Amino acid sequence: MDNSSGVGVLDKAVLVLNALEAGPASLAQLVQATGLARPTAHRLACALEHHRIVSRDMQGRFVLGPRLAELSSAAGEDRLLAVAQPVLAQLRDHTGESAQLYRRQGDERVCVAAAERASGLRDTVPVGTALPMTAGSAAQVLLAWEEPERLHRGLRGAKFTATTLAAVRRRGWAHSVAEREQGVASVSAPVRGPGGKVIAAVSVSGPIERLTRSPGRLHAAAVVAAAERISEAMRRANGGA
Q1: What percentage of the chain has pLDDT greater than the value 90?
Q2: Burial grade of 71 (CB within 10 A; 0-12, 13-18, 19 or more)
Q3: What count of other Cβ atoms lies within 10 Å of the Cβ of residue 1?
Q4: Is 13:48 a contact under the CB 8 Å cutoff?
Q5: pTM, whole model, 2 decimals?
Q6: Which tens digits make up the pLDDT trace of 153-177?
Q7: Which one is the CATH code of 8-64: 3.40.605.10, 1.10.10.10, 1.10.287.180, 1.10.760.10?
Q8: CATH topology of domain 73-237
């Protein structure tokens, strides 16, 4: 099969990347794997290194670079948003409350998608809003399955405790009442990516007078089901990984 795109330099660069997919390679190993002339292989590898698509390990061998992971993450987020938006709309319609999708970014959680309740009292969280990781059911979900060291670090200054997070892991969802904002309650559940890693949190939120002081009783099942639909769609998008 002819894999040529008709753009010679691009095809040769892809040969280098394909060779590095198998693991670190010296220049001699790159030449052998790609069939490229030594000066060509070296020039392409160094050019890719300049753009962080290729890097070097401690032994000076060429390896795949960090830019590929960044691009993969961006592509994954695009897939996540495309999958999540209709599910959030369904969740909003089912519960009658505003629905959000949060991703963790450092010490904050960012609302990356939302489906707002059309009228009446609602908890509006515009897309792009950054909220602290120290309060709210979505913060609990995004922290609960972290590695122990990161989890305990995240508890510093938090309005919830390690016991709270243990309960979140046990039942598979979190709720909060006036934890992030007075008068607001919420319920959240984890969205999982390949390997079961928690990559986002689905939430519904609204006034305590509607969600009550036990919002999980009302909406946990619907929020968990929505999170599982998104997780399953992400697994399918990643080839069932």
Answers
A1: 69
A2: exposed
A3: 3
A4: yes
A5: 0.69
A6: 999 999 999 999 999 999 999 999 9
A7: 1.10.10.10
A8: Beta-Lactamase (3.30.450)
